[in-house]
Amino acid sequence: MCECKNKLAEFEKYVICNKGTEPAFNNEYWDNKEAGIYLCKCCESPLFSSEHKFDSGTGWPSFYISIGEILEGPDFSGGMVRVEVMCANCKAHLGHLFGDGPSPTGLRYCINSVSLKFVSKYK
């Protein structure tokens, strides 16, 4: 499942390969306001755009739509029922999808920064 684990640091492996979660408000992109795109950390597939990022108040990067292929699956961990989202290309764990986002989709892709690689529009 985790094709890129040999090129990841230990905490990245925990999140991406073992479906972990990074701390809220203590991650690289939760408050990033720079224009650009967010790629999968493992395979560099484009996943999200800064144009669709919003401040959800949760402490993780949140998007209301994806620009790439995302897989969804059930997640029953931690005594909760959630929808896990993964990169469709490499199956890396990205985060979760919730139905409490803004218009026009009403969706909130709540994504771990460590699962992403940001590419600035200005570089």
List keywords for this structure.
3-stranded antiparallel β-sheet; 9 strands; Metal Binding Protein, Guanine Nucleotide Exchange Factor, Chain A; mainly beta; 1 helix
Give the topology, please.
Blueprint: H1 10-16, E1 36-40, E2 46-49, E3 53-54, E4 62-63, E5 70-75, E6 82-87, E7 93-98, E8 108-111, E9 116-120
Antiparallel strand pairs: 1-2, 1-9, 3-4, 4-8, 5-6, 6-7, 7-8
- Please report the distance between the alpha carbons of the first and last residues: 32 Å
CATH superfamily: Peptide methionine sulfoxide reductase
Give me the Rg, rounded: 13 Å
Mean pLDDT: 94
Query: Could you list the spans in which at least 5 consecutive residues all have pLDDT below 50?
Result: none
Give the count of structural domains: 1
- Strand and helix order: HEEEEEEEEE
Order of strands, main sheet, comes to: 3-4-8-7-6-5
